[in-house]
Design brief:
4-stranded antiparallel beta sheet, mainly beta, 1% helix
């Protein structure tokens, strides 16, 4: 039998220790199969779970995203019988975030692409066998990504598609180098997950997991259609073959086959039983799905690192940490694995970690500077007590910051001197340059990494914040507004620039947009038991208190994208906005003492009684675990920072970050051929007003239907004449359940999820009031007797189930209450 069929990845529902890869030797929708489905599992760790899979049909190379190993695994020798005798396995890339990572293979260039929603980037890796041990990879897209999830390729056209499942979901397209970027779709989606490209029909297909639906559009984002909807499902992955599309459902353990045009469900739905296995990934194994071009452009190029397909050509590019030699064209090293890095220091060492430590802690720790004399190796010492320094104790490291643009580490020592040195110098070279001798006790330090050559530091004993130009070495004390002496200032940080828009009118009332930049710093102030978080401009003006009255703040970081502070206080993690609104999260590691933020990651170091310093990272937006690793029984770490300039560049700061870009509802950075513009948009049921920032809803007073929208927590009005959808203005995120329109009173009446009240308002959402309260019951559906004015209702099964009515005066009367075996749904009053 020929090599053909579907590859699926599964997980045993009862024994979820090992995930499997199975091969179905037919194409459902075209033929039937009755028999055993072969499978294999990876036993590379205590648990394995293969969430996504792709395969090159001709080379028989296959690629798997393994969740627990945080890795892309490559295999050779794929065959339909899954005979392991001829298969070999290797790690293609280690340090992929745990999450909904999606893979896509370019079979023309033998390049593998994937999305990473925590690092917020899209990565490409060469798949050739001779490059597997080189750790080559290229970040293709990493700007204005919130949570990239789905990915699809058309190597024949040279297109890369992806879905962004972030705050404002969208689908975008670029070429396979990440250039010529275009935003295709921004509306009518909630949670776009997996994607697939139909290279023959020139359409993209994607799953919206929240709405349980399958959608499609053209390559240009036009002609968007809902193909199918599967209620009470969790759709996860999809694959296209000829006229059908395969979709997995991890809630019901099914593989569905739909007609890709009509959405008609085939009679055959695959379910694995004895034991029951949940089907996650699906991919078509077929020569038909991977046609070749007349010319092998990448074969002719013989690229050193990566080859990227174009529609009529191919391009050689270098891996991260390398750059092309302008003369020879060869890829030459420029910081290699530490092109993006985590820099970490204790009192005796400054070391560098691969940026992928956020996802996997197996990468090397390489130390670049020490004050204790040359060690036998460049790995940080692991003895239970710090080695006695050969230099004066005054040289022990207190803290540091980074000049990221120039890759300089600036550090303060115990004798309150501030030095600088290239962060990439080998540890054998102990060169350092004095910047300044502080007059007081240095308690915090922050470098203005992009906008100046200035270093700021705080002094706890003098109550001051000072500034020095690290090149000219001229410095001064910052005069705080009203000549205030600060109380024990410490943990100073510079906030990346806030971009603020102002509107200015000219004489003919046209609106022009003007932007200005706010530069602020933040620091901790106050003694033990009365700590506060303060901010002010860099020149000492406009001082503000963010939060106060805390016992202590031990570490402070700032997320510029979300405009949130994170800090530690008494073993708890605090999250605070610039305006002081605060959330407190219990931290499972009560001895945490040092924080670090990067992209969607938050990491911390805590003390373990047996292992000493331990690193842990997590996505605090979704509570997804990152990595957990031992740093050893060295002395406590004093500081850690990320070496990556991108988050600090003004051109990479989203115009939608601050105050939603001035938009009333949705602010979206949109691309059209690599040109990014900010666009204000509206939620469903609203229209953009003439000022291009405000939203309005044109509610009609007659000939309409009211619908409670459970997906978006909104109340919609459908105009029966124009079929347009309008939204009823109400409280944000109101969870509507039942809705009724009183045509006599011209008022809306509704119930809300897990609320005992029945509400009423005018059609435009004004004059809201409570017209009844059912106490311990939750109203579900309603109808009114227009002759008496009594409002009849049913209640949900989560409360005391009964049928009753409210009188016009608000008296609640139960009609039927002995309901134990039934679930009450709708209710209708006969008009007679």
């Amino acid at each position: 039998m020929y090599e053909r069929g579907l590859v699926i990845t599964t997980l045993d529902k009862e024994d979820d220790q090992y995930g499997l890869v199975r091969h179905l030797p037919i194409y459902p929708g075209y033929e039937s199969f009755d028999g055993l489905i072969p499978g294999f599992y990876l036993k590379a760790s205590d648990r394995t779970h293969i969430l996504n899979f792709d395969v090159e049909f001709r080379s028989k190379e296959f690629y798997m995203y393994e969740y627990h190993l945080s890795s892309i695994v490559v295999g050779s020798g794929y065959n339909k019988d899954l005979n392991l005798t001829g298969m070999t396995f290797n790690f293609l890339h280690v340090g992929v975030s745990k999450g909904n990572v999606q893979l896509a293979v370019d079979w023309l260039s033998h390049t593998i692409y994937w999305t990473d929603s925590l690092f917020r980037w899209i990565v490409a890796v060469p798949g050739e066998k001779q490059k597997l041990d080189k750790d080559y990879y290229k970040i293709i897209v990493d700007e204005y990504l919130d949570a990239p999830d789905g990915i699809a390729l058309d190597p024949l056209k040279g297109y890369l598609f992806w879905s962004d499942n972030g705050r404002h979901p969208k689908i975008e397209r670029s070429d396979l180098k990440g250039k010529d970027r275009r935003t295709l779709i921004t509306k009518h989606m909630v949670s776009p997950l997996s994607m697939e490209a139909d290279i023959f029909g020139k359409r993209i297909y994607w799953i919206d997991s929240y709405t349980h639906s399958l959608f499609s559009a053209t390559y240009d984002g036009k002609d968007m259609r809902m193909i199918a909807s599967v209620p009470n499902s969790v759709l996860f992955d999809l694959a296209v073959y000829k006229d059908v599309i395969y979709v997995t459902d991890i809630r019901n353990d099914n593989l569905y086959t739909f007609n890709k045009t009509t959405g008609r469900l085939a009679s055959t739905t695959l379910t694995l039983v004895s034991p029951v296995e949940t089907i996650y990934g699906v991919v078509v194994y077929s020569e038909y799905n991977q046609p070749l071009k007349d010319k092998d452009h990448c074969g002719d190029k013989k690229c050193e690192h990566l080859c990227i397909s174009g529609e009529n050509n191919a391009t050689c590019i270098c891996s991260e940490g390398y750059e092309k030699n302008t003369t020879t064209g060869a890829c030459q090293e420029s910081y290699a694995k530490f092109h993006k890095a985590i820099v970490i220091a204790n009192a005796t060492h400054i070391c560098m970690l691969d940026i992928r430590w956020f996802a996997y802690t197996g990468h090397d720790v390489v130390c670049r500077y020490t004050v204790i004399g040359l060690p036998a190796s460049t790995v940080a010492p692991v003895s239970s007590t710090p080695p006695a320094p050969t230099a004066s104790p005054n040289e022990l490291i207190k803290m540091f910051d980074l000049d990221i643009s120039n890759r300089i580490v600036i550090f303060a020592t115990a004798d309150n001197k501030i030095y600088k040195r290239p962060v990439d110098l080998p540890i054998e070279n102990d060169a350092k340059e004095v910047i300044i001798q502080a007059s007081g006790e240095i308690s915090g330090m922050a470098y203005d990494t992009y906008y100046s050559e200035n270093l700021y530091w705080s002094e706890s004993d003098t109550g001051s914040i000072r500034i020095v130009d690290v090149d000219t070495k001229s410095g001064k004390r910052i005069s705080v507004e009203n000549s205030v002496t600060l109380v024990n200032p410490r943990n100073i940080i510079i906030l990346p620039t806030l971009r603020i828009k102002q509107l200015k009118f000219n004489v003919i009332k046209q609106i022009y947009n003007f932007y200005f930049w706010i530069r602020r710093m933040a620091w901790v102030e106050g003694n033990q038991g009365d700590a506060s978080l303060q901010t002010m401009t860099l020149d000492g003006m406009d001082r503000r208190t963010v939060v106060s009255g805390l016992s202590e703040i031990t570490s402070l970081v700032y997320d510029n994208e979300a405009q949130l502070f994170y800090f530690l206080s008494n073993g708890s993690l605090h999250q605070t906005a610039l305006n002081g609104s605060e959330q407190i999260a219990s931290l499972e590691d009560q001895t945490a003492y040092l924080l670090l933020h990067y992209k969607n990651y938050l990491a911390w170091i805590y003390i373990h009684p047996s292992f000493g310093n331990v690193w842990k990272s997590k996505d605090y937006g979704t509570d997804t675990t990152g990595a957990h690793g031992i740093l050893g029984n060295t002395s406590p770490f004093v500081d850690m920072k990320v070496l990556d300039i991108k988050p600090f560049l003004p051109e990479t700061a989203s115009p939608c970050t601050h105050r939603n870009g001035g938009c009333e509802q949705i602010c979206t950075p949109k691309y059209n051929g690599d040109i990014m513009v900010k666009v204000c948009e509206c939620s469903i049921g609203f229209k953009l007003d003439t000022d291009k920032v405000s939203s309005r809803s044109d509610v009609v007073m007659d000939n309409f239907i009211l619908v409670s929208d459970w997906t978006h927590n909104a109340l919609r009005q459908i105009d029966l004449q124009t079929h347009e959808i309008n939204s009823i203005m109400n409280r944000e995120n109101t969870a509507y359940i039942g809705v009724y329109f009183d045509s006599n009173m011209k008022r809306i009446i509704w119930s809300e999820y897990f609320r005992s009240e029945i509400f009423s308002s005018k059609l435009d959402g004004s004059d809201q009031k409570i017209i009844g309260d059912l106490g311990n019951s939750f109203p579900y559906r309603m109808d009114k007797d227009l002759t008496t004015g009594n409002l009849y209702y049913t209640t949900t099964p989560h409360s005391s189930p009964h049928i009753g009515f409210l009188t016009p005066s608000g008296v609640n009367i139960w009609l039927k209450k002995d309901i134990t075996e039934e679930i009450l749904l709708d209710i209708v009053v006969h008009p007679g």
